[in-house]
Amino acid sequence: MAALLTTDLGDTPLLGRGKVRDLYSVDGALLLVVTDRISAFDHILGSGIPDKGKILTQISLFWFDLLKNIVPNHLITADVTEYPRGLRPYKDQLEGRSMLVKRAQMFPVECVARGYLAGSGWKEYQASGTVCGIPLPSGLKDGSRLPEPVFTPATKSQDGEHDENIPFETVENLLGANEAAELRRLTLAIYRLAAAHAESRGLILADTKFEFGKTAEGVILADEALTPDSSRFWDGKLWKPGGAQPSFDKQFVRDYLESIHWNKQAPAPALPEEVVERTRAKYLEAFRRLTGRDLTGLEMGT
């Protein structure tokens, strides 16, 4: 089972390659292809996770459909047979892992919603009792549920470095009060619906981040939505505040890299087969539990 680490769509104009996605220009739209690359500690690793791109794409498509009554999204189609004819020869690279999407003017902030204390939020809380300057009750632990979900925006890194949490006032200064308030409203509305759905599936949505853009029709949800790459999903039965929670993401990868004492400098190492397989299984389990569906094609590595 081979991982797709890079795409080659012939003469189709390549706009860029991110840590995970390859972006192409197609007839006034964008083609977003999710590869099997995986990153950790801000570096793309030397090996990928087979089918990861397909799993992430299918999870995003599930959420785009579930959330469409809250906010429109950038999706035109994910059906390769509906793509422009020139892309059809590349079906093997595109099937299940690509989306033809609308162009939009992207807002320069990551829109983060937190319902639980974890990650950078936990670090800030330990230091100041706040998250993005929002005061929180004393006595919370790593993994504690917050009294109510909070909007904790971040800068959108353009160079692969860490995003930095910023106060809401900074977003207002960047975008204006009205658009900042609308992004906060949408982020929290999406989080509440998604967290309720996840809970119905035995999962906790601890936090997540969104990217929004603007078209002539208004604000749309873009990029990905509520995947294990952009969200912390925990097993509801195993949740116990007071430390790191078992999660449905690339934690196996991070733990392995810490265990070999990698200095977090390029070049990034490749992963042992066991770590690859366990990480892939976690992504697949997240898909099954969130969507209630089973993707036979993914299990077969097709």
What does this structure look like?
There is one protein chain. With 302 residues, this protein is α+β, with helices and mostly antiparallel strands. It has two domains: 1-103, Phosphorylase Kinase, domain 1 (2-Layer Sandwich); 105-238, 2-Layer Sandwich (D-amino Acid Aminotransferase, Chain A, domain 1). Helix content is 31%, strand content 24%. It has eight helices and 16 strands. A hairpin with a 3-residue loop joins strand 1 (14-17) and strand 2. The termini are close together. Residues 298-302 have low confidence and may be disordered.
Let me know the largest β-sheet.
7 strands, antiparallel
CATH architecture tag of the largest domain:
2-Layer Sandwich
Helix content: 25-40%
CATH domain class of the largest domain: Alpha Beta
Which structural class best describes the helix and strand composition? alpha+beta
Let me know the number of strands: 16
Radius of gyration: 19 Å
- The CATH homologous superfamily of the largest domain is called ATP-grasp fold, B domain
Might you state the CATH topology name of the largest domain? D-amino Acid Aminotransferase, Chain A, domain 1
Cα shape: globular
Key words describing this protein structure:
single chain; 302 residues; alpha+beta; Phosphorylase Kinase, domain 1; D-amino Acid Aminotransferase, Chain A, domain 1; 2 domains; five-stranded antiparallel β-sheet
Summarize the structure.
By secondary structure, the chain is α+β, with helices and mostly antiparallel strands.
Topology (SSEs and partners):
Layout: E1 14-17, E2 21-26, E3 29-34, E4 39-40, E5 43-44, H1 52-67, E6 75-77, H2 91-94, E7 98-101, E8 105-106, E9 109-116, H3 119-128, E10 130-131, E11 134-135, E12 145-151, E13 154-155, H4 168-175, H5 177-200, E14 203-215, E15 218-222, E16 231-235, H6 251-259, H7 273-291, H8 296-299
Antiparallel strand pairs: 1-2, 2-3, 3-7, 4-5, 6-7, 8-14, 9-12, 9-13, 9-14, 10-11, 14-15, 14-16
